[in-house]
Amino acid sequence: MTIGLTPSLTLLIGTDLQLAYGEHAPGAQLRVWEEPSFRLAAAVENGELDVALAYDIAARPGLVLTPVMEEEMLFACRPDIAPDRSTVDLEYVLSCNLALGSAQDIGRRVLARAVGKTPQDLAVRYELQSIAGIRDLLLRGNAVSVLPYGSIAHEVRAGRLAGLRIDGAPLKSTLYVVTRAAKEGPAPWADPLFAWLTEQAIAMAADRQPALVARLPSA
Question: What Pfam families is this protein classified in (predicted)?
Answer without folding.
Answer: LysR_substrate
